Amino acid sequence: MVKVFFNTFGCKTNQYDSALLGQSLERSGFELTGKLEQADWVVVNTCSVTKRGEDKACQWVRKVGREFPGVGIAVVGCSVEVSAGRFRELEGVGLLLGTEEKFRLGEVLRERLERINGSGPALEEQRGRIGLTGKYEGREILSAHAERARAFVKIQDGCDNRCTYCIVPYARGRSRSRPWEQIVAEARALEEAGHYEAVLTGIHIGGYGRDLAGRPSLSVLVEKVLAATDRIRLRLSSVEATEVDSRLIELLSRELRLCRHLHLPLQHGSASVLARMGRKYNPEEYKAALDRVLDSLGHPGLGTDVIAGFPGESEKEFEECFNYIAALPFTYLHVFPYSPRPGTPAALLAGRPPVAAVRERVRRMRELSKKKQENFLKEQLGSRLSVLHESRLSSGVSVCRADNYVRAYHRGASPAGGFILVAERTWRDGVWGRLEC
Ligand code: SF4
Fold it and tell me: Which helix (H) or strand (E) holds 271?
């Protein structure tokens, strides 16, 4: 049996795509292996969001080509759409499949093996179909995910926004929503397979449903999934603050199975930088949207993304951003230095701040993130956290995740399913708790 090894770069949506690809390969007679040295083929599911991510994938492919001669390499996904040239000439690369084409991997691989009987890598390249039909292409239901407790459920692909720094719409096309019936069926299948949490994921989930008949919104979708399942809890991946509607806020405050955790990407806290980024709000509008959430939910787990060093970012604009973020009750920040992506409007903008200044801005933001995270952990002490088991350390300590995204530890085995931990003290990057009897 032909053995296939996967290496996935990038976001939760990519993780989901790889899980689905793996399932479909298994169903068409391939065997998945977690050991690179046993593989006949290697699939590299790429991410093009930052140059660094793409560099890493390139380096890894080069290493495999050098150390495992004779192994076929299939490079698939975002980078194939926007940077195929970086992979085409690399040793061992036999297949390049774009964002939509990658879902034909099993078929293409099978045809290829039959045609040339597995010998010699002749390069095949298929890409450019993204968004041709304008619809989410019907695919099979993912019935289990490698991670035991948590699974991802993809609800849409692509994005209709054109933030000036972002390569994603070029790599994944316009927004296509997955029919809600498929999503509900998948959530039920994952629940039956024993998963306790489903993360609703996509590229622009706040735009869910705008292209479907009846325009079901994200909140309508969440209601449908909750109604169709019994015990699986739901978590939302990144969603634009201005797209969190009152119905979703109500669900977040009422439904115990919907995690009180939101990741609301801000990107910058200065109006002028946000305008240059092509974001669809200014700092006042973002804060108004956030206040609506906080008025109902108190202090949920609250994350955001920040880009430091965008072209033209002055000291004054950075300070505005820093002070704006410092004043808001975020519980963690994902901070990225600006990474110019060829083909995006921002890559043509002049005035990138000096490297040393960007490094310092990133450092300060990450320091701020650490403080916010520590404060949030202290707030948890004495409270009852609704947690799920994630893994176990060699010392016997169990690692869990609370619904507000706080990491929680306790000694010994965790009960099956969700349970309550009482937070006693901060420990490592989370809290130490005791099981509530
Ligand atoms: S909303 Fe903006 S940053 Fe997010 S994927 Fe779409 S274009 Fe990129």
Answer: helix 271-277
